[in-house]
Each structure stands twice: as C-alpha cells, then as structure tokens.
C-alpha cells in the first residue's frame, strides 16, 4: 500500500472532519491586535479563547521591547545550538531570573515547551526507572513517556488513593530494578482548570521515595501570591523537584524553561536531545522574556485584574446554573449535554449572532453526548464583556434545552 493512502483514506480522529470545519472550528484565522476583541472573517468578535492570561501579548512595554530587540539583534542571533555556538549572557540572565522567580536553584531555556518536556522525560528516565503519572496529562508528557522503555503506571485524574497504590507498586518494582521513581502531573490542567493535588502528592514523600515533575504551563505567572505557580498557590513549591513552564500562555511569547536543583539542570543541559540538536532561542525572545518576567514580578495588578474577571465569569455562570466542573483557575470549561452537531450549531450561533468567539470540544475528543465550551478570561477583558457573555450563554443554553440545535448534522460553515 502507498504510505500516502492514509492522507485520503483515514485522515485521523480530528482530520476526518476537516472538509466540513476547516477554517471555522479548526484552524480559524483571528486577525488584528491580540486582545479581548479581534477580527474573525471580517467581523469583530469578543474573544475568549486565548491563553493571554495577563494581557501581555499587546502590552505597550512588551511590544516596544520585542520590536527594539528584533531591530538590534534580528531573528538569527545567536546562530547554532546552545552547546556549540548559541550561548549568550542574556540567555543565562533570563535563566537565572526565572530560577529565582519560581524558587529553584537553576533553570534552562527550552525552544518549545512541547519538545522540551519530551526531552526532560527522556533524559530523566532510564530503563530501570519507574514513572507514575496523571491520566489527563498533556500530550507532551504522554509523548515523552512513549520514549520511556521502562515501566509506567497511570493513575486516574487526581485520584490520590490510586496514586498511593501505584506508588506502592512502583516502589516495589524500582527496588528490584535498582531504579528511581518519578511522578508527573500538571499544576493547572489546561482543559478543565482544576489543579493537580500537589500538596497531597508532596505529602506522600513521607511514605515513598520519589521525585515530582510538574508541568505548570497554565499556572506560571497566574497562580500563587507572586505568580510562581501552582506549587506556590498550594504552599508546596519546595516539594516540586522539577518545575516546567512555558512562555506560550501568561508570558504571551514562545519558548519555555525547566527549573530544578543545579546539578539536575546541568545534567539536563547535556542530555536533552531536543535542545542539544536544535538552534538556540532567538535573542528577541530572550530579551522579550526578561521584559515579561519584569512585568509579571512588578505589576501584581495584572494578576489581580485577571482574577477579578475570572471570578465574575465563573460566579456568574454558576449562579445561572451552568456546570463549570472543578476549576480552581481562570480556565473555565462550560459543560453542556448534546451531540456533536448541537455543539457546532450552538458555537456557530454564539459566533455569528452574538459575536462571541470561544473554543468548543465535542465527540470524538471527549465522550459522546458531551459538549465543552472553554472560556479563557484575561486581564484585558472587562466586566461588561463578562455580563454580555453571561446573557448570551443563558440564551444559547435555553435554545439547546429546547432542542433548537438538534439538526442532526454539523452546521455548514464553508
Ligand atoms: C499543559 C501544557 N504543557 C505543555 C504545553 C506545550 O508548550 P509549548 O506551546 O511551549 O510547546 C502546553 C501548550 O502549549 C500545555 O498546555
């Protein structure tokens, strides 16, 4: 069979819908300045789907710094991988500032969070090591684990009794292989907004010998008193042995970092293949990263504004009877019942008739009969945006309950 046959025959679990939804529900083009209002297909929309939590994407100081750094260095500099010819004082400065921001001894920059995480896991685990991880971990964790040829145990999302049982099994096994045990979870879970139970996990260190790796992509900059993440929020940042953060969310940029004890970071620098064999992070991203970190440290009002908007949105939804799951972060899932066609019709109605742009997830990504609209409040939203959205949501929920979206087919958007 031709290797290309799958491109037309199967397309994969999401690709099978491409001909019906491409450009609208998948790969939509949002244009204009990144903010609470952007242009979609020529019309202004109120946007609730960007992880621009603190509104830094379009902050004037950020924009100026990015532009000046691009002017001064261009995008090519430094040329080469960090290990060969891509090392600079500014890369090191950002690493040292990030390390102290998240309360760790050392940090190392990663070109992308996804690739970085795959390599962190690959480098940390040998064949004899045993890994225990949350079942709802992000794809970068799952894909990192695919490279692990030793044993792995999964526990159902945030099920601490099961984690304990898996730690018992892992500890026993590691005793026979001579390896160590690594636990991996997220800080803030990006789809559901609930938190990894880091306090309970760290408390298990009394009974088991393991290290904890936390992906805090959605917690960095927004959780905790200083924005140091979910570990700070739950009072156990010291118990997080390896902290992972990305610049793709609150930092509103590209790149990521890992922070840990100095000897672990040195080990990772010399063993993470996705970083050793890839070009260094471009200078404008490094200089821009320093500026973003400075703003996150010195402008707590951005975080306060984010939480004001998040609380208003989440309390308003709850008061109107919406199910928003167990979120304890700004990530706001709105869980509705309906089939995929109802999910797309409702989202289309919100987008076209209420000018509200938010992301929707339905079967086959989540179980049949469930629709999840995901709202991401940010510091650039207003309370008027929240009230307008609450009214619109009540309206479409009423229509959903009356069966008005039950056409049996995915809305024609092309
Ligand atoms: C939980 C989580 N981890 C890792 C990543 C990957 O980060 P990046 O976009 O920097 O590759 C993401 C998404 O961006 C994420 O949501």
Structure commentary:
This protein has 414 residues and is α/β, with parallel strands linked by helices. It folds into two domains: 3-53 and 300-413, Aspartate Aminotransferase, domain 1; 59-298, 3-Layer(aba) Sandwich (Aspartate Aminotransferase, domain 2). It is 41% helix and 15% strand. The protein has helices at residues 5-9, 12-15, 18-21, 60-73, 89-101, 113-124, 139-146, 160-177, 198-203, 230-233, 262-269, 273-276, 283-298, 300-319, 340-353, 383-401; strands at 30-31, 37-40, 43-47, 106-110, 130-134, 152-155, 181-186, 211-215, 242-246, 256-260, 332-337, 356-357, 359-362, 370-375. The chain has a seven-stranded mixed β-sheet with strand order 4-10-9-8-7-5-6. Helix 9 (198-203) links the parallel strand 7 (181-186) and strand 8 (211-215). Bound molecules: pyridoxal-5'-phosphate. Pyridoxal-5'-phosphate binds at residues 112-114, 117, 138, 140, 186, 190, 215, 217-218, 246, 248, 256.
Sequence-ordered SSE layout with sheet pairings:
Blueprint: H1 5-9, H2 12-15, H3 18-21, E1 30-31, E2 37-40, E3 43-47, H4 60-73, H5 89-101, E4 106-110, H6 113-124, E5 130-134, H7 139-146, E6 152-155, H8 160-177, E7 181-186, H9 198-203, E8 211-215, H10 230-233, E9 242-246, E10 256-260, H11 262-269, H12 273-276, H13 283-298, H14 300-319, E11 332-337, H15 340-353, E12 356-357, E13 359-362, E14 370-375, H16 383-401
Parallel strand pairs: 3-12, 5-6, 5-7, 7-8, 8-9
Antiparallel strand pairs: 1-2, 2-3, 4-10, 9-10, 11-14, 13-14
Pyridoxal-5'-phosphate is lined by residues 112-114, 117, 138, 140, 186, 190, 215, 217-218, 246, 248, 256.
């Amino acid at each position: 069979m031709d290797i290309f046959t799958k491109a037309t025959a199967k397309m994969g679990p999401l690709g099978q819908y491409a001909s019906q939804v491409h450009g609208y529900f998948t790969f939509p083009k949002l244009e204009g300045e990144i903010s609470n209002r952007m242009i979609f297909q020529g019309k202004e929309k109120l946007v609730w789907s960007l992880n621009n939590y603190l509104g830094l994407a379009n902050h004037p100081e950020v924009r100026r710094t990015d532009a000046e750094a691009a002017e001064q260095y261009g995008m090519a500099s430094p040329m080469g991988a960090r290990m060969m010819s891509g090392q600079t004082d500014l890369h090191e400065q950002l690493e040292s500032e990030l390390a102290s921001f998240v309360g760790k001894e050392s940090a190392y920059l990663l070109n992308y969070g996804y690739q970085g995480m795959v390599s962190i896991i690959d480098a940390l685990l040998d064949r004899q090591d045993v890994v225990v991880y949350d079942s709802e971990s992000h794809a970068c964790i799952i894909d990192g684990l695919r490279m692990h040829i030793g044993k792995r145990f999964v526990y159902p999302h945030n099920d601490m009794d099961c984690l304990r049982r898996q730690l018992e099994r892992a500890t026993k096994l590691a005793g026979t292989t001579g390896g160590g045990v690594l636990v991996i979870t997220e800080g803030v879970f990006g789809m559901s907004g609930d938190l990894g139970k880091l306090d309970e996990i760290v408390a298990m260190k009394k009974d088991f010998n393991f290290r904890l790796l936390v992906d805090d992509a959605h917690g960095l900059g927004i959780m905790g008193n200083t924005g140091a993440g979910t570990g700070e929020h739950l009072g156990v940042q010291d118990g997080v042995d390896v902290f992972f953060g990305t610049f793709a969310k609150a930092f509103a940029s590209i790149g990521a970092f890992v922070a840990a004890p100095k000897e672990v970071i040195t080990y990772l620098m010399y063993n993470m293949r996705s970083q050793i064999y890839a070009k260094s992070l471009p200078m404008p991203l490094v200089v821009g990263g320093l500026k973003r970190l400075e703003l996150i440290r010195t402008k707590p009002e951005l975080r306060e504004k984010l939480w004001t908007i998040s609380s208003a949105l989440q309390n308003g939804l709850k008061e109107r009877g919406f199910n928003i799951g167990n979120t304890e972060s700004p990530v706001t899932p709105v869980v509705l019942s309906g089939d995929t066609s109802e999910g797309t019709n409702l989202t289309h109605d919100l987008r076209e008739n209420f000018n509200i742009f938010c992301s929707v997830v339905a079967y086959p990504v989540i179980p049949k009969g469930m629709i999840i609209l995901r709202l991401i409040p940010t510091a650039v939203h207003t309370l008027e945006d929240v009230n307008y959205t609450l009214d619109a949501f009540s309206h479409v929920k009423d229509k959903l309950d009356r069966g008005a979206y039950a056409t049996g087919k995915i809305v024609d958007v092309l």
